[in-house]
Each structure stands twice: as C-alpha cells, then as structure tokens.
Amino acid sequence: MRTQKINSFLKNFHVMILIFLIFGCQSAIQYYDSEPACKVFFELTEGVLKDEMPINEIKIKIRELEITSMKSSDEILVTSSRFIRAAEEAVANYYDYPTFMPLAYDDTYEHMEIHVESYLALKELTEACEKEGFPSKTKEIIKSETEVKNSESVNQENILRENSKIPSIDSANNELMKFLKSKTWGFFGGTCDQWVNMDYDFKKQKSYFINESNDWKIVWDLKPDKFLGPKTLIYYINAETGSVSGDTNNKQNSPISEGCDKW
Q1: 26 Cβ partners below 8 Å, 6+ apart?
Q2: How far apart are CA 209 and CA 55, in angstroms?
Q3: Which residue from 124, 144, 195, 219 has the highest number of Cβ atoms inside 10 Å of its Cβ?
Q4: In the chain, what percentage of residues exceed pLDDT 70?
Q5: Beta bridge partners of 220
Q6: Can you say how many angstroms the Cα of residue 218 is from the centroid of all Cα atoms in its chain?
C-alpha cells in the first residue's frame, strides 16, 4: 500500500514537472514586434525627406525610434541603432534643414561624410523593415532626391571644369602651396609651405567650395604633437583667378611662423 502511494506521488510529481516545463518554456519565449519601430522610422524619414517636420519633432521621433526599437527583432534593433546615431549627427550638423541624403558638395560638402552615413543607415533599416513585412513609404522620395542631387553634383563639376582655373579641392590646395612657397620663412632660406607642412595637417573633409564668393576654403589644423602657432589655418583660393587670401585669424604673429602666418 505504501509502495502504491509512493508510486502515485512520483507519477503526479513527474506530471507537475512536465506541466511546469511546458508552460514555463512557453512563457520564456521572447516575442517581439517590429512594426511600431518601422512605423516611427518611416514617419521620421518621410517628414525629413519632404522638409516638413520641425527640428524639435525630428529629435522627438529619433527618441521614439530608440524606445520602440527595443521591443523589435535583433536585426531592427541593430540597424536602427546605427540609423539613430547617424540621424543625431545629421540633426546636429546642417545649414538650413537636416537631411539624411548625401547632398551635392557645393551645398553641404562640409557635412557630406555625416550625410552619407545617415543615407546608408537609412537604406539598411528600410531593407530590414521590408524583410519583416513593413514596406517603405519613402523609396520614391529617396530615388527622386538621389537623382536630383546627383544631377546637381554633375552640373556643378561641369561648371567648375569649364569655367574655372581651380576645379577641385586638391588643385586649390596645390595653388595654396605654390603661393606659400613664394613666401620666405625666417632668414635661413625656408619657405612658408615648409612651415605649414611641418606643423599642420591638411583637412580635406573640412575644406569645401563657397558658391557665394566662388572660393575654395582650405583648412589646415595644427598637428597633435605641435603647440606653437595658430590652431587652424584657413585660406581662400578663388576658383577663377587662383588668388590666395588668408583668414584674418591666421594672423597671430607667432614666433614659430616667422612671418608666415600673416598670409
């Protein structure tokens, strides 16, 4: 009799364990829903691409995307994280209105690297949402924007090639070096281009074309291991004439420059 009770208890115990495992495992399964994140993402990108969403609302939407993506699939979570970082950079660096598109260099060349990253992240997250069954509402906008910007870029390059003596950043910097080479550095036969190359790094990503004045803005930053002289040297090279003029902030009469920072 006692043996029967023990066997019955063990049988019931095993049944209870089985029930616990079945329902316990089911409750442990993680469910996700990517639709809210994709919906916020499409609202954000559509508003920005149409230039219709106020800046403050853009920032709010970015935060909403960050929150909703936490309950999304792993792929949406990862791709949205990249887009969020890029979008925050784009919103922090713009002229008239933020963009997630790689604009023509004559418009926002200074920020193009940021724009390219936001555009790539946008495409990646769009594809991730589409894979999960949420079609993009912004594809046609992206396509038309890209076509327009590519056309603008080509047109600007053609204008520079046809009408300008200095058609590119590199040629502008070369013209600057020629100019500085003609200027004396100290009393020992050195030239100002030697001083600049020795103490400064050419910052191509910070240099860009200025439509209003038809000048190339060329930027050189003081090297990390240097501490004498202006922290940044800025020069303007006219695209048509090749004439060079230095920014007024260059002129600090630094002993190390021995007169070269007056240009």
Answers
A1: none
A2: 26
A3: 195
A4: 69
A5: 202, 233
A6: 20
